[in-house]
Amino acid sequence: MRLGDIMKIREKTRPIQVGNLTIGGQNKVVIQSMCSIKTSKVKEVVEQIYRLEDVGCQLVRVSVMDDEDAKAIKEIKKFIHIPLVADIHFNYKQAIAAIENGADKIRLNPGNIGSKENVQKVVNLCKEKHIPIRIGINSGSLEKDIHEKYGKPTAEGMIESASRHVKILEDMEFYDICLSFKSSDVQLCIDVYRLAAKTFDYPLHLGVTEAGNFAISSIKSSVALGTLLEAGIGDTMRVSVNGEPEDEIFICKQILKGLHLIDNVANLVACPTCGRTQFDIRPIVDEMEAYMRTVDKDITVAIMGCAVNGPGEAKHADIAIAGGVDDGLLIKKGEIIKRVKQEDMIRVLKEEIDAFEG
Q1: Percent share of the chain, pLDDT over 90
Q2: Which long-range contacts (CB under 8 A, 24 or more apart) does 321-326 make?
Q3: The dihedral of CA 41, 44, 50, 51: what is its sign?
């Protein structure tokens, strides 16, 4: 089956509206992250969301642990430019308060907030305000009877858990639902999302939970999410990183860029270096990688370390440096422009990137 045919899975999910974003029903994947600061600290949260917006975050989630967090949403919403999701656990009153204070979406498992009457109160308000609900199933917190039935976390068990929560909402004629199925086990993530795509027509939020630090999370998430996205599965995504939330956006964008599911993302190509390398390439690569995180252009920049393969490979980039002895050739669209001293490489590359118009 061709990739274009497989992509129809994503295009056929039921669309939901989250603020000004449409999720589902299209071949588009929304990038999201989560604030790492207590939500009641409004100024710090807003500053963090600004940083996320600057690097391409499209949807942000905040924790609602108490009434002060719920009230803070109203103030936060005055300043930010992307939709906000309120993360609720167990307390239906906090869900109601978050919605009343302007949350664009809530993350809540209806089977975990008490009586049917309490769930109905939340659902009624979501209907009135047109607020979707994301049901999140985590392999580490499945219901006791499901865990006992399967003996360990399985894709089938996670789907069974989700079906229970979904039925509660559907019985109340509520269908603005998004689903997520998270595990720290890469293969389990792949298996459960594949099964979910066959079981439900609701949009799916992809993620590997507790993925680790930047390097480990990049690997786990690229394997799991890349596999699913390439198969046409997934409408939103978050890469969980034990670090700054901005790092999550960088990895998301690189995964989507590699699958041609996003535009206006800069691509950095750099050789791994070897005994032929004749200048100190690593500091230049490190600084240019950081700089290019905020470049919203379809541009490929190559930094090559030697004069053997460098010039040939650099010709395929929009802008490139092919290194020699303490200097390098500046190459644009395959044409050698001039020699650049090592100490000038970063400045020249930044100038060329800023001036690039495609």
Answers
A1: 73
A2: 321/284, 321/345, 321/348, 321/349, 323/277, 323/278, 323/279, 323/281, 324/278, 324/279, 325/278, 325/279, 326/278, 326/279
A3: negative
Instruction: Go through the domains of the chain in sequence order and give each one's CATH number.
Output: 3-258 (3.20.20.20), 267-355 (3.30.413.10)
> Whole-angstrom Cα distance, residue 271 to residue 125?
55
> Does 35 appear as a known binding residue?
no
pLDDT in tens, 32-57: 999 999 999 999 999 999 999 999 99
Query: Does residue 126 have a known ligand-binding role?
Result: no
Look at residues 139, 243, 240, 270 and name the one whose alpha carbon lies nearest to residue 193: 139
* CA triple 175-256-301, angle to 5 deg: 160
What are the tokens at 207?
């993620």
The residue type of 81 is H
Annotated ligand binding at 274? The verdict is yes
DSSP 296: -
Reported pTM? 0.90
- Determine the Cα–Cα distance for residues 49 and 96; give it in Å rounded to an integer: 23
**258: buried, middle or exposed (CB in 10 Å: 19+, 13-18, 0-12)?**
middle
Three-class DSSP category at 91: coil
